[in-house]
Design a protein that fits this description.
Shape: flat
Helix content: 40-55%
Number of domains: 2
CATH class of the largest domain: Mainly Alpha
Largest sheet: none
Strand content: under 5%
Radius of gyration: 21 Å
CATH superfamily of the largest domain: Tetracycline Repressor, domain 2
Order of helices and strands: HHHHHHHHHH
Amino acid sequence: MNATELGEPPARGRGSRHGGSAGTVWLREEPDRPRRATPLTRERIIEAAVALLDEHGIDGLTMRRLAQRLAVTSTALYWHVKTKEDVLDLALDQIFGEVQLPGTGDDWRDDVRALTFRWRAVMLRHPWAPSLIGRPMLGPNVLSRTEFLQSALVRGGLTGIQLAVVTRLLANYVIGAALTEATWRQAEDPEARTEARQHIAANPTAYPTLIASGHLDDGQWSDDDLFERGIDAILATPRRI
């Protein structure tokens, strides 16, 4: 089903009337507009968009459905946001605001752990978010948390290529862990992981190492434990980069 069938206008390029692509909402200045007699605000739009994304995922968010949720016309909606890409960028930055910034402590590693644990938890609350992280992430909430992460790593003595590599390692690890866990949790069959483990166990000749290592065996290690140990492993690597 395409956008037109969903009641959305066709996809628009950079030079179109509503124009813009992923990330451009942070790069352009919004023109001054006269006030209209409507309670609609960008803040209300973002709040409604996050609710729709939580309920229906990315494919379930359309500008038409968003306008209906807000009880306004699509024209009124476009007065505040130009495209669905704008809405996704704004919604993603909005949920990053839920990642509470830790206080700066004595141990930079503890600060990194606290931030990454909270980041993962927020993405698991909003399982649509991990798949959007590849977008240009220039919103104020995202940038302030990236600033905190890198400042903690700098306090740990990382600079130059070490800083760049470890920042990417941590970000990709958090995003990947959240995406994998969210996918498992969204599976229609809650026993899917158990069945996957049973499939492996039933093929000892093909998968002897996976059986011995407890791959996909929730009874040995929880996702929380594996995530925490993964962060610690990354933080132990910088000197070897």
